[in-house]
Amino acid sequence: MANQGAKKRKEENIRHMTKLLRLIIACNVIYVLVRMLFFYSTFTWKHWIGLLLTSAAYVIPYQQLSSMAKPAYDDDGELFDGGFDMSTGGVCGYLHDFWYTYLVIPAFGGYKIFGLTRGFWSQSSEGGEEDEKTRKKREKMERKASKAKIMKTRTR
């Protein structure tokens, strides 16, 4: 009963590291599938090199976290320490923050896609009634656009 906290932390660390490993594998599998299925014609050896480099960038923090989460046993083989508490800050927190850097590019892509599709979702004035002020403003803008524009040039 004295090592109940260590056993609990060991189980939490195992779950946490398993979740991180699944996340790494899922990211790499999704990348390869999307790249090979949708962008097959532009998938070159450079992309394989990039995948290996980013996978190495995944592995380095994962290995550091794994060594921090490793439980310690005494000479009798009994659990002595359940490993580092992964929910604390410090170096462990910085290693977890490293994963957020990989979310920046997909988040920016989602932001751009949302900006492009927002125009299709917005309410247009064709379906509803226009008030008098909006109608006059629209007609004035149409008249301005239809006028021939005169360009003044210098003569020498």
Features:
mainly alpha; elongated; 67% helix; 2 strands; two-stranded antiparallel sheet; 156 residues
| Portion of residues within helices | 55-70%
List how many beta strands DSSP finds. 2
For the biggest sheet, the summary is: 2 strands, antiparallel
The CA-CA distance between the termini, in Å, is 99 Å
Radius of gyration: 29 Å
The chain-level structural class is mainly alpha
SSE string, helices as H and strands as E: HHEEHH
User: Given the C-alpha coordinates, what overall shape results?
Assistant: elongated
Strand order of the largest sheet: 1-2
Average of the residue pLDDT scores? 81
Q: What portion of residues belong to β-strands?
A: under 5%
Unreliable segments of 5+ consecutive residues = none
Number of discrete helical segments: 4
